[in-house]
Amino acid sequence: MKRYWQIDALRGLMLVLMTFTHLPTRFTDPLGQPFGFVSAAEGFVLLSAFVAGLVYTRISDSRGVDAMRRAFWRRALKVYLVQAATLLFLFTIITRVGLRIDQPAVKNLLSFYLAQPLEGFGYSLLLVYEPALLDILPMYIFFMLMSPWVLAFALRHGWTGVMVASAALWGLAQFGFSEWLYGLAVHSLHLPVPFREMGAFNAFAWQFLWFTGLWMGASRHAPDAEPFRFPAWLVALAVGTALYGFWWRHHGINGQAPFGGDEAMNLLFDKWQLGPLRIVNLVVLGIVTVRFGPALMRRLPRLHALEAMGSASLPVFCAHLVAVLLVLAFYGDSQTARPWWGDVLLLAVVFAGLYAVARAALWWGEHRRSRGTYRDIAAIDSSVQGR
Length: 387
Prior knowledge:
Largest sheet: none
Protein name: OpgC protein
Keywords: Membrane, Transmembrane, Transmembrane helix
Number of domains: 1
Transmembrane segments: 7-23, 35-56, 77-101, 121-146, 158-178, 198-218, 230-248, 275-293, 314-332, 344-365
Shape: globular
Distance between the termini: 33 Å
Strand content: under 5%
Pfam families: OpgC_C
Low-confidence stretches: 374-387
Helix content: over 70%
Radius of gyration: 22 Å
InterPro entries: UCP028704_OpgC
Oligomer: single chain
Mean pLDDT: 91
């Protein structure tokens, strides 16, 4: 199956920006939401959904819906095992180091687990308790489990109903749907996990972004699929809006909080709820990228390091979490704990490690595929000789 190196490069870029954002250094604030009031997380989720829509639609067409469902479930299981391994690393090594040196950043990160270790461990494996930084993969698993049913329905009946329902659920999420469900769970199941410990991302809002990407990817599967095109007036409007968002983000007096201390207005751009103006900012950036990105990438040299990281996005993402947790355990969450050259050295070491993880993961994938091909050939030879 053909890989789109451009998509891999963009996913690699999102991983780089996530690392800058999560590692506490002097570069965290300047490179957080660098293009406006949109973070790397939105781009990464949208691109991952696009690839999933493209790949799993091809599987459905070539091998059937049941094969597509099994492929989704295998991927979800793989991500779950990775999440479990990362939680184990957090609850053992990071917890031990943090408590030994009395690190407030680790104590704050693990406050519920330290207070109720058995409940924290058990509910974390159930993806109910989600410590900060480890709340992205549970949402991804949730989407992967929903996707085979949604994709099968959309391929049979069209995407209109799916996207209307998804938009309606996003709208409910803006008005406390998650909190309402949590109240029911506490009342009916006596759930001991506080709402604030169940992950910062509102999955009922973010599913809209995921299923939008899934639809976009599925629509690219057809051999005669036309590239996305936009009228000139819309492109001009998108460029103007994107530039204004960029200027507002970097030259406004409030930095990453568009309206300063006005919490009600900031909700319009809220990351965790995927606020409406945040979606507008993401849409205009998407239009600009689709319209001008291909021409720009033809003129730029291919960044193979980014492509490698994007191709091995899951192991690289987990390696970046390990690096961030280690830094939090030893240095805390202060962005000025080291001199500037120390931050540069730290980032250089971390990115070198992420690239090494990407290359190792890609090598291992090629090794397994080559062994699988060899076994297939051996089986065919054996069959022929037996006849």
